[in-house]
What does this fold into?
Amino acid sequence: MGSRSRARARAQVSDAASQAAPRRPLTVSGTAPQRPPTVAAAAVVQAAEVAGVLVATVLAGIDAGTGRSYQASSGVALTIIGVGTVAALGLVAAGIARARRWSRTPALLTQLFTGIVGVYLVQGHRYAWGVPALALAVAGFVLLLVPPSIRALTASGPAPPGESAP
It folds into this structure.
């Protein structure tokens, strides 16, 4: 085997090794880094929002089934959309709980939409739903945007003071 062939083989092995690298980098001790408590709390907030959407979906389904919705077809559509939303938000909550990078943007968008809905509910004097929605949205934003969460949920978050970024 010539030197070019050996170099090409080494490059291919190196490329294959970099593609098969573990998802989470290892620490000095050889274990995966711990998930920050802020990420765990953000997952709890996301799960609480999923529970709220689930309750609203069940109520919309009951209203559609009993004929109390504005129109039967819109009640059924809202219920179907709610079920899909619960499934999608549940996946996002699971992604946040596992500190998956892909889950940060959908979780932030969830907080934005929860805040918008919370403002709408408060303006409509639905305080029992609006105030908790606003509280969850604010808590979710804060928990997702603090430095430990950013480091855990982004490819290259800001380095702590005194450390250089790789």
Q: What stands out?
A: The chain has six helices and no strands.
